[in-house]
Structures are given as structure tokens and as C-alpha cells.
Amino acid sequence: MRRLVLALMLPATCLSIQAEQTGRISGKVVNKEGKPIPGAKVNLKRTDRNWSKDLFPDKSGNYLQVGLEPKEFHLTVSAEGYVDYKEEIKIPLADVLLKNVTLLTPAEARTQAVASGAVQVVPEDPGAALDAEGRDAFNMAIPLYNDGKYEEALPHVQKAYKTLVEAKEKLKDEKAKADLAPEILKIERVLGLCIAQAGTKKEEGEVFLIKALERNPKDERVIVGLIEINKAKGDKVAEQKYAAILETLQGPNPDVIYNKGVEAFNAGKTKEAKTQFLKALEADPKYAEAHYLLAMVEFGENNLHGTKVHLEKYLEIAPSGKNASTAKEMLKDPSLKKIR
Asked: If you compute the radius of gyration of the chain from its CA atoms, what whole number of angstroms results?
């Protein structure tokens, strides 16, 4: 009996011993005001071998990683619009390392460096305040933009872009000016996308998105924005050009093709509609609505076999679809029932 009790206790003991072989790290990432930073990232990288992991704080800024070996790590905390925080840390054995991090904007970091005596005090740069103001405006826009609230984000992005362009012209610190240039390009892209989605004059975003596409010809989000802008302008040629670019990157989009077919069908261009519906089904053979409208086209052309095939396919894919009752009634027609 004693041996049995020992055997039953052994796994728990082993688990306890194993658990003591690791440690963990936890903490919070905030800005100077103590608020969590959307999009912040914590990276842990072993100093002794090629291993790293990215952690993403929650909405409150908290992060946690368990099961870490008691080794030395490079800790890097980063977020768009902020200076990276870097430190070499040692994970304790069977314990937690608490590491709270406050990220600073470039302007805040320079101010802190001057206050601490880490850098020599120089005459005030007339562009520094504008730099800080513009970055703060963009930081306010980021969570709204990420949540798809483009109309709310737009005024903040507009302010950020205008202020930072002015800051770049007035900055005397050449390094700060060089650091600011790529940030302006990022904001320029976001500005174009916000205007495309929420601007009252969508065409005003086109120049920003064209520049962004030149920098990255595979930026699908920018291409979608240009499609929206040219659709609003009524420029079919440009809309189709960007749609073709997007299709090359993504492959055929059955929704886009189907919508073209619907436009042709409603305009009475049945041959063109049929071509588009067949293309949509090549991209997605289970596109129920394409089967239904193709059946309507076939019926209009008195192709009863094709009508029956596509009605049956529609019901097979969408037995409770919005056109199911109509399809069932049509199939009851004697002229279709006798078709084999």
C-alpha cells in the first residue's frame, strides 16, 4: 500500500520539479500619460541562441509570457510613433520578472535626454514642437483607423500630415528631420485611405495613394482605395485598371465578377452577363447566386436544359436561399420536368 501511495504521488512531484525549471515575465506598456498604446509589441530574444518571440499587450497594455528558461534575453518594446525601448534582462528561476515600460515619442525622448544631462542643451528647434504635435495627432488616429472608424480618424490624420510636413521644413536637427521623413510617408498613405473611405471629396486622396502604390506596387489596401476613388469619380477605365491589378495579386474575385454580370444583366446585355457569371463560377463553383442568374439567362435564351441544370445547382448549394422558392416553382413547370 505504501508503494502504491508513493507511485500515485510521484507524477505530482515530478510536475512540481519541472515547473520550477522555468520563469516568466509580465508587465505593462504605456505612454507618458500612463495610457496603453494600441499596436505596441514586446519582443523577447535569447542572447545565447537564435530564438525570439513577439508578445502583444492587451487593451489595458498588459503582457505575460510563461515557461521561459532562466537565461538572458534582449527585451525590445516598440510601437509606431514611439522610440524603441531596449534592455538586456535575466529571467529568474521559478519566479516572475515584472517589467513595466513607458514608451516616449521622439520629442519626449529628446526632452528627457536634455533634462537628464545625457545630451548637451542646444537652442530650441522651432520644428521640435510641431514634430511632437503631429505625432500626437497621428497616435490619436491609429486606434480609430485600426477599428475602421475612418471618418473619426480623418481629422487627426489630416492634422498630423499638415503639422509634420511643416515640422520637417523647420527642423534644424538633421537626424530628427531624417527620422521624420519615413513617418510622413506612412501618414500620407493612411491619409489617402481615410479620404477614400470617408472623405467628402474622395478624389483628393488619389494623389496620396498613387504615391503609396509607387512605393509598394503590391499594397492591396491602397489598390482597393484607388478602386473606390475612381468608382466615385465615375472613371471606369481607371477603376478597371486597378481592379485588374488587384486580381493579379489576389486571383479572380468572384464577387467582383458576379457584380459585373449583374450590371450587364440589369442593362439587358445577356451575352455579357452570361460570360461574367461563368467566370464567377470558374473562380467559385459554389457561387449560388451566379447559378441562379445564369439559369435566368439560359431561360431567356430558351435553353431549357441549361436552365434546369443551374436551377438544380442553385438549390443544391442554397436550399434555403432567397431565390429557392422561385427556383422550385420553375422546376415544377412541365417543360423543365421532362428535360433529362
From this structure: 30
Tell me the CATH number at 313: 1.25.40.10
Tens-place pLDDT, residues 268-277: 999 999 999 9
Please state the pTM of the whole predicted model: 0.50
Burial class (CB in 10 A: 0-12, 13-18, 19+), 200: exposed
Q: 3-class DSSP state for residue 33? A: coil
Of 80, 106, 86, 79, give the one whose Cα is nearest residue 177: 106
What pLDDT score was predicted for residue 114? 66
List alpha helices for 20-126, DSSP H. Answer: 106-116
In sequence order, what are the beta bridge partners of 46? 73
Q: Are strands 23-30 and 101-102 parallel, antiparallel or unpaired?
A: parallel
For 97, the 3-state DSSP assignment is: strand
Determine how many CB atoms are found less than 10 A away from the CB of residue 295: 26
Residue 292 lies in a domain: yes
* Domain co-membership, 32 together with 134: no
Cell 541562441 identifies what position?
Answer: 49
Q: What percent of the chain has pLDDT over 70?
A: 91
Digit-coded pLDDT (tens) for 152-186: 999 999 999 999 999 999 988 888 889 999 999 99
Do 242 and 117 belong together in one domain?
Answer: yes
Q: Is residue 128 located within the same domain as residue 241?
A: yes
Q: Is residue 151 domain-resident?
A: yes
